[in-house]
Design goal:
With about 80 residues, the protein is an all-alpha fold.
Length: about 80
Amino acid sequence: MQTAGAILSIADIYSPQLLEKACDKALRQYHMPYYKTIYSNAKSINSEKELTEFKENNKKSGIVRGADYYRKGEAANEH
């Protein structure tokens, strides 16, 4: 029963939906997955989700520097 409680606590760290995806992935890989496998899957899925969100946010706004940054040999770049 401790293992079941530990697995359910992953939902407190990430989310119930992410735990469900991690369990599904683990059950496709192994007949009886361990906590470590499910936790690792949850961590991996969360990282992929964060990377996707980061890319989407940067598509909208981008990281833009002004023309002064690219001028060489001028006072704008000298600190």
